[in-house]
Amino acid sequence: MKTFLVTYSLNSYTKYYEPLSERLKGFPRWAKILPRTWIIRSSIPIDRIRNILSNRIKGEGKILVIEVSNSKWAAFDVDEDVAEWMKKNV
């Protein structure tokens, strides 16, 4: 499984936020880092992840997916449970 950073900007926040959020929660492992930034773990290829997520927003926003497997990271003032998740999964 690989680890991916997913961030997005929606044109119509209330309409597509929930379908996108629910799909992100459908990946085997996930953490919501910031309001529009998630880290997910999946064996699905990166371009397929992008397509799966972009289908949820119907062209009403932007999505960026970056593989971050085994990356170094540092955070300030993120929730402790999120930081612990990142220690185990990034």
Please explain how this structure is put together.
The chain has a single domain (2-81), classed as Alpha-Beta Plaits, CATH 3.30.70. The protein is 38% helix and 31% strand. The protein has three helices and four strands; from the N terminus they run βαββαβα. A four-stranded antiparallel beta sheet has the order 2-3-1-4, with helices on both faces.
List keywords for this structure.
4 strands, alpha+beta, 90 residues, Alpha-Beta Plaits, four-stranded antiparallel beta sheet
Summarize the structure.
The chain has 90 residues and is an alpha+beta fold. The chain has helices at residues 13-24, 46-57, 80-89; strands at 2-10, 29-34, 37-42, 61-67. It has a single domain, classed as Alpha-Beta Plaits, CATH 3.30.70.2360.
Average of pLDDT: 93
Q: Tell me the count of domains.
A: 1
Helix content: 25-40%
**In DSSP terms, counting alpha (H) and pi (I) runs of 4 or more, how many helices?**
3
The CATH class assignment is Alpha Beta
Q: Structural class, from secondary structure content?
A: alpha+beta
Distance N to C terminus: 11 Å
Quaternary class = single chain
Chain-wise SSE layout:
Blueprint: E1 2-10, H1 13-24, E2 29-34, E3 37-42, H2 46-57, E4 61-67, H3 80-89
Antiparallel strand pairs: 1-3, 1-4, 2-3
